[in-house]
Amino acid sequence: MHDLKTIREITGATGADLTDELLAGQEPVVLRGLAADWPFVAAGRKSSADARAYLKGLYNGSEVIVSHAGPEAGGKPFYKEDMSGLNFDYKRIKLDKFLDLLERHEEEADAPFLYVGSTAIGDCLPAFSDENSVPLGDRRYIESIWIGNRTHISAHYDLADNVACVAAGRRRFTLFPPDQLPNLYVGPLDFTPAGQPVSMVDLHAPDFEKFPRYREALAAAQTAELEAGDAIFIPSMWWHAVDGLAAFNVLVNYWWRQSPAFMGPPNNALQLALLALRDLPPEQKKVWQQIFNHYVFENTDETSAHIPERGRGVLGPMTDENARRIRAFLLNGLNR
Predict the structure, then answer these.
(1) Contact by Cβ (8 Å): 132, 40
(2) Among residues 150, 146, 164, 165, which one has the least CA distance to residue 250?
(3) Which domain of life does the UniProt lineage start with (predicted)?
């Protein structure tokens, strides 16, 4: 690995460290020991067999989606060389069968890529959270589990804020601030390995001739290795690459948004902007940039103060009613 800056740490972290200030902040933080008292963490510290037995004891029999590829993938779900497709496949199997599959290949140096990603814990392990959880107050979060062997997940961002707990094994997190987008050489927006755009640069063997600005990204990067029981807070929109370093790894994470549920994903606006704005003549693009700044990015109370309150429509506070009005307007326009 490159000589990167270390992510700030809180040692001996407890739920009391999950303050509103930290969880609404824009700085990543490693929370050493946050999940150290989880019964599942204790099982995994004994052995991977004990960890698998713990999960099987809570399993409700539902199927999970497994990403898989041969050893040639090197544990990295990515694109084929010619971008004609992805270098891995999906299949649905029972979770206990997947755990058996991991065990079968655990001692192999050249093991296939096997990964259950972003699976809602309540769908397959409904009682897991009764004994293994972190206190996030009244935040409406999504709780997911990630299980696999040695993996290398390319740098990507998530819209949600994220507390991720290493529950078994070891993981390395490498983070890039949101402003490094131009230096990460991001791939397609609509054809992605797992739903989010990813950096096309191999973190472990970057081709600086092909991707020269990646040196700047690495200069801004931060990294940390987490053991079982450790956690990390990753703010919204921070790019992060994640390496599973053990033959058996389990991650539990919690996602939430700092916005009302009726607000749509900003990526929808990006896709519409590509459709309606990107290829306008340069002078018209400048005008629309000013319009977006006025109504969106630099919006203040004065933006619509000259309009009587009852007549402000979508320029008023973004309520559920206004959100429905905007969606209806968009659907009407897109269906023409």
Answers:
(1) yes
(2) 146
(3) Bacteria
Q: Which two tokens stand for residue 7?
A: 């992510």
Backbone φ, ψ for residue 313 (5° rounding)? 55, -130
The CA-atom distances, in angstroms, between 83 and each of 44, 96, 188 are: 38, 33, 10
* Structure confidence at residue 330 (pLDDT): 85
In terms of DSSP bridges, do strands 63-69 and 231-234 run parallel, antiparallel, or are they unpaired?
unpaired
Residue range 130-188, pLDDT digits in tens: 999 999 999 999 999 999 999 999 999 999 999 999 999 999 999 999 999 999 999 99
Name the residue among 124, 123, 138 with its Cα closest to residue 57. 124
CB 170 within 8 A of CB 245: yes
pLDDT tens track for 86-118: 999 999 999 999 999 999 999 998 999 999 999
The Cα 86–Cα 185 span in angstroms is: 18
Determine whether 102 is exposed, middle or buried from the number of CB atoms within 10 Å of its CB (0-12, 13-18, 19+). buried
**Domains of the chain with bracketed CATH:** 5-256 (2.60.120.650), 266-334 (no CATH)
- What's the rounded Cα separation, in Å, for the pair 91 and 135? 34
Cα–Cα distance between 304 and 316 in angstroms, integer? 8
What percent of the chain clears pLDDT 70, i.e. is strictly above it?
99
Straight-line distance from the first to the last Cα atom of the chain, in angstroms, rounded to the nearest whole number: 52
Residues 281-330: tens digit of each pLDDT: 999 999 999 999 999 999 999 999 999 998 998 898 888 888 888 888 88
Cα–Cα distance between 111 and 88 in angstroms, integer?
Answer: 14
| H/E run at residue 224 | strand 222-227
Chain-centroid distance of CA 36 in Å reads: 23
What average pLDDT score do residues 233-247 get? 98
Asked if residue 13 lies in contact with residue 231, where contact means CB atoms within 8 angstroms, the answer is yes
In 70-221 the beta strands, taken as DSSP E runs, fall at: 89-94, 113-120, 142-148, 151-156, 161-168, 170-176
